[in-house]
Recover the amino acids of this structure.
């Protein structure tokens, strides 16, 4: 058991009387991108939200490094396990102000996280209102990286981006996985799955 393994164990999720996940088990390993696939409505987002406790399963457990996430401090869990959403979630203000919302660091450190997403320190004073969708999503990824997460949950992070911008995010994620991060990436795009995935988990098939 590695400290960054994510294990989903027989999770059941009911919401408002509907069965959304019916006994799902999966394991996500460090140093790899696992693509989570499945038809629309199969519960991919619902599964991802359990991992950093944005939601709590009706039964079953999610373990991170062998420890039930229900027993972890939620802020500490979310620092260790970052999440990127389908649409960029910037705060108003400059790129620097956004990175500060992740963690107070020096500009040198901010330059390093921007570099990890193929941006440069020249971005720091730009207002997020003036950035493209692809730039914004990369700033949001950089913001998450300021807390030095061990794992990343990515919920269709490129679905609102053009193909070139999507490739940049894919390349950044591949490099992060190469450096040992555990990456769980929801996608319904089978070509993207084939480009990025070391492992594939199909929600729906395995229930
Ligand atoms: N709070 C809720 N109350 C009732 N139903 C919900 C709730 N949250 C999600 N659902 C339903 O659960 C099912 C799974 O939703 P989820 O967003 O996890 O699927 P998904 O596989 O990510 O879908 P997509 O590929 O379309 O984004 C859907 O039918 C959705 O309508």
């Amino acid at each position: 058991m590695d400290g960054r393994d994510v294990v989903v164990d027989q999770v059941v999720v009911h919401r408002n009387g509907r069965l959304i996940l019916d006994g799902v088990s999966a394991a996500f390993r460090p140093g790899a991108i696992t693509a989570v696939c499945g038809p629309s409505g199969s519960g991919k987002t619902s599964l991802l939200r359990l991992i950093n406790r944005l939601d709590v399963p009706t039964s079953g457990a999610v373990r991170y490094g062998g420890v039930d996430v229900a027993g972890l401090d939620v802020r500490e869990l979310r620092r260790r396990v970052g999440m990127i959403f389908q649409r960029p979630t910037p705060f108003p203000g400059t790129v620097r102000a956004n990175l500060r919302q992740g963690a107070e660091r020096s500009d040198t450190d901010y330059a390093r996280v921007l570099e990890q997403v193929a941006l440069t320190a020249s971005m720091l004073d730009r207002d997020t209102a003036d950035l493209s969708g692809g730039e914004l999503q990369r700033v949001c990824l950089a913001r998450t990286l300021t807390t030095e997460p061990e794992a990343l949950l990515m919920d269709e992070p490129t679905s609102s981006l053009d193909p070139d911008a999507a490739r940049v995010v894919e390349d950044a994620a591949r490099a992060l996985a190469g450096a040992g991060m555990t990456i769980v990436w929801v996608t319904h795009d089978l070509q993207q799955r084939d480009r990025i995935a070391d492992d594939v988990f199909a929600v729906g098939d395995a229930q």
Notes: The chain has a mean pLDDT of 94. Residues 15-16, 18, 20, 38, 40-46, 188 surround adenosine-5'-triphosphate (CB under 6 Å). Residues 5 and 121 are 33 Å apart (CA to CA). The domain at 6-202 is CATH 3.40.50.300 (Rossmann fold).
